[in-house]
Design goal:
The chain has helices at about 5-10, 40, 45-55, 70-75, 90-95, 130-140, 195-215, 235-240, 250-260, 270-280, 295-300, 305-325, 370, 385-390, and strands at about 20-25, 55-60, 105-115, 120-125, 150-155, 160-165, 220-230, 245-250, 265, 290-295, 330-335, 350-355, 380. It is of the alpha/beta class and about 400 residues long. Helix 5 (about 90-95) crosses helix 9 (about 250-260) and helix 11 (about 295-300) runs antiparallel to helix 12 (about 305-325). The two termini are about 15 Å apart.
Length: about 400
């Protein structure tokens, strides 16, 4: 029996409330051997209090040694096997801006980047331009025409945008055109099958024209595309858990992930304080709250150890406001690790804490990677976090006689 069917059979309805607070890219590494990680370096009295009263451990987002993207990382936290549900980032970005994706569509996540006179990438994110510049550059890209394909180019945020290709006989088995390194040229798109080759041909035509349209627009003078995807078939959280879930996120992609699994998405403002106020406003309407915090990830990707420490401390300062709402279960974790030392996502297990009155405290007194190694949850696949949340919320009955 698969886990989702088991949970359907065991789930019980009550009025308990579960908060899943995801500090994106939370896990880190010491800068020097024997040192402390970003989380261990941060002053986190409120998270430490949760650990003392709760239980902690590490999650494995996909499999040991596998570095996850944000999509698989979050799907695991929502209780979906990321190896069974492979969701391309393009769909998540499109859903994140509430673009209505149809059956004839293939969506891709776009990045504005900077290329030099030789066409080699010097900045994969074009210096993180303002969202206003992103909008202006997308307006230029909207003038591009590709025969046989209807193109939609929509801004997301900063250097990110969405491209949706609509047409017949389009596939999504297309490689990313981002080489994931500077000093290299954007890659040509190649399709794995006949339908995907049609998509790749359209992609290459679009990118070639984008280079002409954006010439002279340094730093946003080129684009890369990745995460080609069609709309997948996936069960909702209401179907599986019987929950009424809501997403409180600022960045569009995470709103897309939430919509994909059937969460309501509400306006969360633009800051963490705004998100906490939104949480308070919708508290009576829902029983599962996905609260996403981005800046632990972006500072890690920038390689800024001190800034990531500061972002963790800012998050810690908001914990009393969440606990003041009296959730029955509070989980704090990340979707993956983003060590500042590596400037990227990594395969390292992710620290997790679970607070509930039904916890069996494990004696850990601080929230950090080395402390969580001694935690009562041990090290386990992230997709089992939701059954634990449901159990601690009194929402799962007994299995068997």
């Amino acid at each position: 029996m698969k886990m989702h069917q088991l949970l359907r059979d065991l789930r019980e309805k009550n009025d308990t409330k579960i908060v899943l607070l995801v500090a994106d890219g939370l896990g880190g590494l010491p800068e020097e051997l024997g040192g402390k990680t970003e989380l261990e370096s941060a002053r986190t009295p409120n998270l430490d209090a949760c650990v003392r009263e709760g239980v902690c451990g590490h999650t494995i987002p996909v499999l040991p040694g596998i570095t996850p993207g944000s999509g698989p990382g979050h799907l695991g936290l929502f209780g979906y096997d990321p190896l069974e549900y492979r969701i391309g980032r393009g769909i998540l970005e499109a859903l994140g801006i509430n673009f209505q994706v149809g059956a004839r569509d293939v969506a891709a996540r776009g990045n504005f980047c900077t290329v030099d006179v030789k066409g080699l990438i010097s900045d994969r994110r074009a210096g993180r331009p303002s969202t206003e510049r992103c909008v202006a550059m997308c307006q230029k890209l909207q003038t591009i025409k590709v025969p046989g394909v209807e193109l939609f180019v929509e801004p997301v945020r900063e250097h990110r945008f969405v491209v949706v290709m609509r047409g017949d006989n389009l596939g999504d088995k297309v490689n990313d055109t981002d080489p994931q390194q500077i000093g290299a040229a954007p890659l040509a798109a190649v399709g794995e099958d006949a339908h995907s080759q049609n998509t790749a041909k359209a992609v290459n035509a679009f990118v070639q024209q984008a280079g002409s349209v954006l010439k002279g627009e340094t730093p946003t003078n080129m684009v890369t595309l990745r995460g080609f995807a069609r709309y997948p078939a996936i069960e909702t959280m209401k179907d599986v858990y019987g929950l009424h879930p809501v997403c409180i996120a600022v960045y569009p992609m995470y709103k897309g992930l939430a919509r994909l699994v059937g969460m309501d998405v509400v306006d969360a403002g633009s800051t963490l304080s705004d998100q906490i106020e939104t949480l308070k406003d919708v508290w009576a309407k829902y029983d599962f709250f996905f609260l996403h915090y981005k800046y632990t990830d972006s500072t890690g990707e920038d390689g800024n150890f001190e800034a990531k420490v500061e972002m963790i401390e800012r998050l810690d300062a908001e914990i009393p406001k969440i606990r003041g709402l009296n959730p029955d279960v509070l989980i704090v974790t990340g979707d993956h690790s983003t060590p500042s030392k590596l400037k990227s996502h990594s395969w390292h297990p992710v620290p997790v804490l679970l607070w509930a009155e039904t916890c069996r405290p494990d004696g850990v007194v601080e929230f950090g990677e080395s402390y969580c190694l001694r935690g009562g949850l041990g090290q386990f696949p992230a997709m089992y976090l939701m059954p634990l949340a449901m159990a601690h919320a009194g929402r799962l009955g007994k299995y068997g006689a």
